[in-house]
Write a structure and sequence with these properties.
Blueprint (H helix, E strand, L loop, with lengths): L4 E5 L14 H8 L5 E5 L6 H14 L3 E4 L6 H7 L3 E3 L4 H10 L3 H10 L4 E4 L1 H4 L28 E3 L16 H9 L7 E4 L3 E6 L2 E6 L3 E4 L6 E3 L18
Parallel strand pairs: 1-5, 2-3, 2-4, 4-5, 6-7
Antiparallel strand pairs: 1-8, 7-10, 8-9, 10-11
Length: 245
């Protein structure tokens, strides 16, 4: 983890703004001047051409070229040559299955954890950066060979985290209850609930909460805790997390 650089965004679009509008300054500061082109992975949505157009327009407006992996005849080679990787949102199961189908799990891990290229994810792209996709909000519309994901961090994230609405009449489980059900299973890692408008910046062994709304941290066997932007979450990056029995 010494050289890893990750920007894990809860959501691509915030109410009232355009695509990646709420985090574009974070993106520019994260990618910096050295990165010229970003490799985009649009596998989470069915219409990859339209998705790539949206992403390309945004990144070009920020001063970066964008290549979409679905336009490459050799996806593995595209990852090996990439300067930075961005995986967008959509259906997490569809995304993870495509990463396995195209033999990209090992290649992306290597580029990010060993070669130190920047990795950005939003929504489903944030889910697959973690240990597993067990805490996604999505329906399993396809069947990936495993729920194990890229493992760029040793915990899980729940993007688009929603607080219970005390006025609601809907009696289904809250997001908090679902995460607690996950933690009823043995050996389950921490889960960071990222509200919309929030992101986690990981630089080497340092992790910092950024954005505007804050996050809720769930540790197995403990009460959830509330955290504001600016919180140092570096302790979550150690595999032997002392707070997780």
């Amino acid at each position: 983890g010494g050289s890893r650089r990750l920007l894990l965004i809860s959501n691509s679009t915030l109410h009232g703004g355009g695509y990646l509008g709420h985090c574009q300054q974070h993106i520019q500061s994260f990618l910096g001047q050295k990165v010229k082109r970003v490799l985009f992975i649009p596998y989470a949505l069915h219409d990859r051409d339209a998705y790539a157009r949206t992403a390309r327009e945004k990144f070009e407006s920020l001063g970066y070229g964008l290549d979409s992996i679905h336009e490459s005849c050799d996806p593995v080679e595209a990852v090996r040559k990439s300067e930075a990787i961005f995986i967008g949102g959509g259906n997490t199961f569809r995304l993870l299955k495509a990463l396995y189908d195209n033999s990209l799990i090992h290649e992306i891990r290597k580029r990010v954890l060993e070669d130190g290229i920047p990795y950005m994810g939003s929504s489903a792209g944030t889910n697959v950066a973690t240990v597993s996709i067990n805490t996604t909000n999505d329906m399993p519309i396809v069947y990936p060979p495993s729920l194990q994901a890229l493992g760029l961090v040793p915990f899980n994230i729940n993007p688009h985290y929603l607080d219970p609405d005390i006025k609601r009449t809907h009696m289904g489980e809250t997001r908090e209850e679902r995460i607690q059900q996950y933690h009823e299973e043995p050996n389950t890692p921490p889960v960071l609930g990222l509200r919309e408008g929030t992101m986690l910046l990981v630089e080497g062994d340092k992790a910092t909460l950024q954005g505007v709304t804050g996050a809720r941290l769930f540790l197995r066997g403990k009460k959830p805790t509330e955290h504001e932007p600016g919180t140092d979450f570096s302790f979550l990056l150690t595999d032997s997390n002392p707070l997780n029995p």
